[in-house]
Amino acid sequence: MYSGAIVGCGAVACEAHVPAWQTTSAFQIVAVVDPVPEHRARIQTLLPGVRCYERLETLLTREQVDFLDICTPPALHEEGILQACAQGVHVLCEKPLTFTAAALQRILAAASAARTVVFPVHNWKYAPI
Fold first, then answer.
1. Tens digit of pLDDT for each residue in 23-33?
2. Using CA atoms, how far apart are residues 103 and 105, in angstroms rounded to an integer?
3. What is the pTM of this model?
4. In degrees, to the nearest 5, what angle opens at C-alpha 87 toward C-alphas 59 and 108?
5. Which positions ≥6 away from 95 have C-beta within 8 Å?
6. Cα(16)–Cα(119) distance, rounded to whole angstroms?
7. Where are the alpha helices (DSSP H) in the chain?
8. What is the pLDDT of residue 124?
Protein backbone atom coordinates (compact mmCIF):
# COMPACT_ATOMS: atom_id res chain seq x y z
CA MET A 1 0.00 0.00 0.00
CA TYR A 2 1.26 3.46 -0.88
CA SER A 3 0.81 6.24 1.66
CA GLY A 4 0.13 9.80 0.68
CA ALA A 5 -0.84 13.23 1.87
CA ILE A 6 -3.26 15.76 0.46
CA VAL A 7 -2.00 19.34 0.31
CA GLY A 8 -4.86 21.83 0.24
CA CYS A 9 -8.16 20.68 1.72
CA GLY A 10 -10.69 22.80 -0.14
CA ALA A 11 -13.62 21.68 -2.27
CA VAL A 12 -11.55 19.89 -4.93
CA ALA A 13 -9.83 17.75 -2.30
CA CYS A 14 -12.96 17.03 -0.27
CA GLU A 15 -15.42 16.49 -3.11
CA ALA A 16 -13.23 14.84 -5.75
CA HIS A 17 -9.87 13.58 -4.54
CA VAL A 18 -10.87 12.06 -1.18
CA PRO A 19 -13.74 10.05 -2.69
CA ALA A 20 -11.42 8.81 -5.45
CA TRP A 21 -8.74 7.70 -2.99
CA GLN A 22 -11.39 5.89 -0.96
CA THR A 23 -12.23 3.64 -3.93
CA THR A 24 -8.92 1.75 -3.81
CA SER A 25 -7.03 -0.26 -1.24
CA ALA A 26 -3.69 0.35 -2.97
CA PHE A 27 -3.41 3.88 -1.58
CA GLN A 28 -4.00 5.41 1.83
CA ILE A 29 -4.13 9.09 2.70
CA VAL A 30 -2.39 9.36 6.07
CA ALA A 31 -1.98 13.13 6.40
CA VAL A 32 -3.24 16.46 5.09
CA VAL A 33 -1.94 20.01 4.98
CA ASP A 34 -4.00 23.18 5.02
CA PRO A 35 -3.45 26.52 6.79
CA VAL A 36 -7.19 26.93 7.41
CA PRO A 37 -8.41 25.17 10.59
CA GLU A 38 -11.94 24.75 9.22
CA HIS A 39 -10.60 22.96 6.14
CA ARG A 40 -8.57 20.58 8.29
CA ALA A 41 -11.61 19.90 10.48
CA ARG A 42 -13.79 19.15 7.45
CA ILE A 43 -11.36 16.68 5.94
CA GLN A 44 -11.02 14.90 9.28
CA THR A 45 -14.72 14.07 9.06
CA LEU A 46 -14.06 12.47 5.66
CA LEU A 47 -10.82 10.75 6.70
CA PRO A 48 -11.09 9.88 10.39
CA GLY A 49 -7.68 9.50 11.99
CA VAL A 50 -5.84 11.47 9.31
CA ARG A 51 -2.98 13.55 10.72
CA CYS A 52 -3.32 17.27 10.02
CA TYR A 53 -0.66 19.89 9.49
CA GLU A 54 -0.76 23.62 8.94
CA ARG A 55 2.44 23.72 6.86
CA LEU A 56 3.88 21.40 4.22
CA GLU A 57 7.37 21.72 5.68
CA THR A 58 6.13 20.25 8.96
CA LEU A 59 4.43 17.33 7.24
CA LEU A 60 7.54 16.52 5.23
CA THR A 61 9.70 16.41 8.36
CA ARG A 62 7.25 14.32 10.42
CA GLU A 63 5.74 11.92 7.89
CA GLN A 64 7.19 9.41 5.47
CA VAL A 65 4.84 9.44 2.51
CA ASP A 66 5.21 8.04 -0.97
CA PHE A 67 3.32 10.83 -2.69
CA LEU A 68 1.62 14.19 -2.31
CA ASP A 69 -1.73 14.99 -3.90
CA ILE A 70 -1.50 18.76 -4.38
CA CYS A 71 -4.91 20.46 -4.44
CA THR A 72 -3.81 23.98 -3.53
CA PRO A 73 -4.59 27.08 -5.58
CA PRO A 74 -2.52 26.99 -8.79
CA ALA A 75 -0.19 29.81 -7.71
CA LEU A 76 1.08 27.50 -4.94
CA HIS A 77 1.66 24.39 -7.06
CA GLU A 78 5.30 25.02 -7.93
CA GLU A 79 6.33 25.57 -4.31
CA GLY A 80 4.69 22.34 -3.15
CA ILE A 81 6.07 20.31 -6.05
CA LEU A 82 9.61 21.54 -5.47
CA GLN A 83 9.41 20.76 -1.75
CA ALA A 84 8.14 17.26 -2.48
CA CYS A 85 10.85 16.58 -5.04
CA ALA A 86 13.52 17.80 -2.63
CA GLN A 87 12.34 15.07 -0.23
CA GLY A 88 12.11 12.37 -2.92
CA VAL A 89 8.31 12.32 -2.80
CA HIS A 90 6.21 11.73 -5.93
CA VAL A 91 3.51 14.27 -6.85
CA LEU A 92 0.01 14.21 -8.27
CA CYS A 93 -0.96 17.84 -8.87
CA GLU A 94 -4.22 19.52 -9.85
CA LYS A 95 -4.24 21.46 -13.09
CA PRO A 96 -2.78 23.72 -14.17
CA LEU A 97 0.58 22.34 -13.13
CA THR A 98 2.14 25.77 -13.57
CA PHE A 99 1.70 29.01 -15.49
CA THR A 100 5.14 29.61 -17.00
CA ALA A 101 7.77 27.78 -19.01
CA ALA A 102 10.41 28.85 -16.47
CA ALA A 103 8.45 27.26 -13.61
CA LEU A 104 7.98 24.10 -15.67
CA GLN A 105 11.74 23.92 -16.26
CA ARG A 106 12.38 24.22 -12.50
CA ILE A 107 9.87 21.45 -11.83
CA LEU A 108 11.36 19.20 -14.53
CA ALA A 109 14.88 19.76 -13.18
CA ALA A 110 13.81 19.02 -9.59
CA ALA A 111 11.86 15.89 -10.54
CA SER A 112 14.68 14.62 -12.72
CA ALA A 113 17.33 15.22 -10.05
CA ALA A 114 15.20 13.47 -7.40
CA ARG A 115 14.00 10.72 -9.77
CA THR A 116 10.41 11.47 -8.78
CA VAL A 117 7.24 11.47 -10.83
CA VAL A 118 5.27 14.70 -11.14
CA PHE A 119 1.92 14.05 -12.78
CA PRO A 120 -0.87 16.56 -13.46
CA VAL A 121 -4.53 15.70 -12.88
CA HIS A 122 -6.50 16.02 -16.11
CA ASN A 123 -9.89 14.53 -15.42
CA TRP A 124 -11.40 14.80 -18.88
CA LYS A 125 -12.44 11.15 -19.22
CA TYR A 126 -16.12 12.03 -18.93
CA ALA A 127 -16.02 15.52 -20.46
CA PRO A 128 -18.48 15.98 -23.36
CA ILE A 129 -15.68 17.00 -25.74
1. 999 999 999 99
2. 5
3. 0.92
4. 125
5. 74, 120, 121, 122
6. 17
7. 11-12, 18-21, 37-46, 56-62, 77-86, 101-114
8. 65
